[in-house]
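Input sequence (261 aa), recorded before submission:
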Amino acid sequence: MNILDKIVIDKRKEVDLRKSLIPTSQLEQSVLFYRKTVSLAEQLKNSASGIIAEHKRRSPSKSIINNSLNVQDVALGYENAGVCGMSVLTDGKYFGGSLDDLLTARASCNLPLLRKEFIIDEYQILEAKAHGADVILLIAAILTREEIKQFSEFAKSLNLDVLLEVHNEEELHKSVMPSLDMLGVNNRNLKSFDVSLETSKSLSSIIPDDFVKVSESGISSVSAIKELQPYGYKGFLIGENFMKTDNPGFNAAEFIKTLER
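Predicted structure, C-alpha cell format:
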C-alpha cells in the first residue's frame, strides 16, 4: 500500500464524518457559494510566468516544511509577487492544512484559489465552492474514469475550474475529457518519492492542446521552468521552494523577476 492508498482510506472516514456534521444545504447557504469565480486556466494562458504558488505546512515526503507562517501573510505575499494563482492544501492529517486555511486565503487576496485536496466525493467539491475556491484538483491515481467525469462535470456546473493530475501515460489516457480545464503532470513517483522533470517532458506530447498544461512537484529553479516551457507547459505548481523560507511572498517575487528577465 503506497501513501496515496493510506490517505484515501483516511479521507473516506473524514468525509463521512463531515457529511454527518454539516449538511450540503448548509454549504449551499454560504455567502461564498454565490461568489463569481476566477478562472485559473485563463490566467495561465495569458501569463509570462505561470506560477501557482502553494501554501503547505508539511508533507508525507518532507515532514515539516514550515509551521510558523500564517496563511494571510502568505496569500498577500503571493498576490503582491504577481503569481497566477494560489494552491491551498486543506488535508489535515498528512499536510497540516484545513478548510479554514482556504477561507483565510480567500479573505486575504483576489487570486484564483485551488483547493488542493484528495477528492473522492462530490461533497468535497461543494465544500470547495462554499469556502471560496475557484479550482479543484482531481487525482487520476485515486479515481476511476467514471468518477473523474462525474466530479469534473459537477465542478463545472458550479463554475469551478478543474485541474486533473496524472503521474503516467496510463492515467492520462483514462482521464482526457472535455470537462477538464488543465492537465497537471506530477513529477513525483508515488512509490519512491523520486522527482524527475522527464515525466512532464515525456507526457507533454500526448496531452491534447485543448488543455492548459501544468507541471507539478520538483520545480525549484527558474532553469526548470525554462526547460519545461518549450514542451508547452503554461503552469508551474511551486510549494516547498517558497514555503521553506521565512517570506514566501518575497521569494516568489524574486523568482518571478528572475524568470521574466
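Checked by second reader. The chain has twelve helices and ten strands.
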